[in-house]
Amino acid sequence: MKLTSLRQIAQWCGGAVAPEQEQVMVNGLCHDTRELDAGALFFALTGTHDGHDYLKAAKAAGAAAAVVSRPVETDLPLVMVEDTKKALADIARAYKESLECRTVAITGSVGKTTTRTMTMALMERTYRTYGTVKNYNNDIGLPVTIGKVGSDAEMLVLEMGMNHFGEMRQLTDIGRPDTVVITNIGSMHIENLGSREGILRAKLEILEGLHPGGSCFFNGDEPLLWELRHKNQNPTFYFGIENAECDIRATEVRLLEGKSRFRVQWKDYDFPVELSLSGLHNVYNALAAISVALHYQVPVKEIQAALSQFVNTSQRQQTIYYKTYTIIDDTYNAGPESMEAALRVLKDTTGMGGKARHIAVLGDMLELGNHASGEHHRIGRVAAYKADLLLTYGPLSVHTVRGAITGGMSQRNAMNFLTMEELVNTLKNRAKPGDVLLFKGSHGMHMERALQAFMQED
Prior knowledge:
Elements: E1 4-5, H1 6-13, E2 16-17, E3 25-26, E4 29-30, E5 41-43, H2 55-61, E6 65-68, E7 78-80, H3 84-98, E8 102-107, H4 112-123, E9 129-131, H5 141-146, E10 155-159, H6 167-175, E11 179-182, H7 190-193, H8 196-204, E12 215-219, H9 223-226, E13 236-240, E14 248-256, E15 259-266, E16 269-275, H10 280-295, H11 300-308, E17 318-322, E18 325-330, H12 336-348, E19 358-363, H13 372-386, E20 389-393, H14 398-406, E21 414-417, H15 420-430, E22 436-440, H16 447-455
Helix pairs in contact: 4-10, 12-13, 13-14, 15-16
């Protein structure tokens, strides 16, 4: 964030600041003292913890000032507001509008983080690029992300996530994108949104903040998105693999060990890409990123170089070599679509020895509501064909095991556990040198702990 006075901050959010503190300057927005950079503006948000209780820690961490909603004893310069969370959004929105940069907003049920990371990797080859870090894609993380954008920004890539109606509307109102990408419409958060059609409606709220004349890039292999092709008022381009009518297509797709190869065709473009990730789902992610990059005239050679060297963010299909094991760490989150894609990658991974067994270590998929038992059962049937051994964790995953057994896997090779300790102990006893292991589950299941425990020496 460029240096901004508390006077300007107060004007942006309708707050009050003492006259003698109006010229205090801040250089960023932060709500967590553990991640606070010196000179930042600290927001005392209220929730599980009351941020007003952390002003001393904020001062010690180097905060230049704080935004509060009630009188407090502190020597930090203050901006007083009625609602600190609303003030964070208002300030981020106003600061974003003061920047002279183009903004790409990415959402979708699956793949939005990888697509965002790929898009940033492509854009930074040509533009001074900023964007979402970690999982900062909600109504707090997105404003904090914007607060880290420098005045030299030419391109801003924002990931927008939601699990209820109205949340996307808030995010797009803050981010005001020039370009929108929707990767797909899956089943994540169907418990809150009722149906895939409800998920679509919630995702489409992102268009409400799109600048007039802004562009859209939708997955044309997703029927719910394809049906919008004559309804959207904004210039819309479709990317895909199977649908021959898509504007931007990946053809001659080859899925190899640890990488993917395909050709990109759009208008006068026709060029090969080698992506440093395996799996058809990652080809879709890359195609979405490529579409945006070509739209903003990133040179083809830069696109090719960036994707050949691309490294995904942690806990998202990261390959780890431990002793003789090949481990696929995909523990950050899971839904039915991403779980099925991960199982395909597991099956296609040969491991160190070339004749490895494939072990799926799966946790519950959450927020599926009435669809939970059916989707877990379906994933179990997929696992029966993609894995040699299935170990699951959580009460919902008993349906995964039942699905696997129904699909032909022996009862000895399909087991459910209600404690992580039992899961890990069984895995250590059953795993053999050279095996390929997939760890995946919803974020709330903390399957990364199972992975860490498996790799811990006894």
